[in-house]
Amino acid sequence: MIKKIFSGVQPTGNLHLGNYLGAIKNFVDLNNDSNNECVFCVVDLHAITVKQNPRELKSNIQETVATFIASGIDPKRSIIFNQSGVPAHAEGAWILSCVARTGWLNRMTQFKEKAGKDKEKASVGLYSYPVLMAADILLYDATHVPVGDDQKQHLELSRDIAHKFNTDYGLDFFPLPEPVMNNNTRIMSLRDGNKKMSKSDSSSYSRILMTDSNDDIRTKIKKSKTDSMKMPNDELSLDGRPEISNLLNIFSAVSKESKELVIKKFAGKEISEFKSDLTDILIDLIEPISSEIKKLIDDKGFLNKVLQDGANKAKSISAVTISEIHDLMGLKS
Ligand code: AMP
Ligand code: TRP
Fold first, then answer.
1. 0.90 surpassed by pTM
2. Distance CA 214, CA 234 (A)
């Protein structure tokens, strides 16, 4: 059976190892399976829910597309486009905002985190952000959505919206989208094992970027927070050692070996020895991607063509969904 895949990444710069291991690596695997129809979107309309510098936004859109392609997403196989290039997303979001209930949105933890103490000053867009995400997914009848752990609640909301629409209009119109997650849906900061690795952390040492040089990677792993003990002998002795646990998770994800095996390999060894091996496999992973990103960024003509072709394909799919929604809701004369 054909699976319809949709996912999005915000063009807010600083794409890091967490984005790669938690989401983009899954996109690549899904892209490589010929049973799937994949749509990957650079969600620039989501990015503007907080203030953006227009020049930086433009270059971050290009960098995000370059990272998709450099990581292995093939624009001939998957649709790659940016959200603002397809007006159906904004229209879909409005229509679905009339289906979603404010009580549902009030429970969204990401809004609470991002709005901080002064909720009154947050944009209306930041509040209705998950409705736009639902529109993204539902316009393409997506059945599977690869995301990191932090997007689980938003995806559940998309299912609730799809279900209510189906109930209100008496049809199995929208499929209920399911999350696709691997074991790496929560890569943590290199400075604090209890905090997610994030684009917006004030310390650049907290994250490894997909554009980092080999020296950057070496320094960041060397400086990454650990403790003064030796490497653990088993999973149980990782209790209370979140930073080492995170580095082991990263090692396991990058080497594709189970965490159990990685623990065994380094049991009782010095942390510095483990860090040195971790640095080597990270460089092997990131060096080719980072140099491809740099090459692609210099070929703006190519990147713009990918976005333009993708937007044309996305427009024709989403226009059909919008027209059917109009019909169902009585919006057509
Ligand atoms: P964003 O940068 O917020 O648009 O996120 C893009 C994708 O990366 C989403 O699917 C996130 O869930 C995922 N992601 C972001 N940070 C992490 C992290 N630290 N660990 C794993 N996945 C992440
Ligand atoms: N909200 C997601 C994030 O911050 C990005 C996103 C927007 C998305 N639309 C989507 C993810 C649709 C999956 C499907 O990471």
1. yes
2. 30
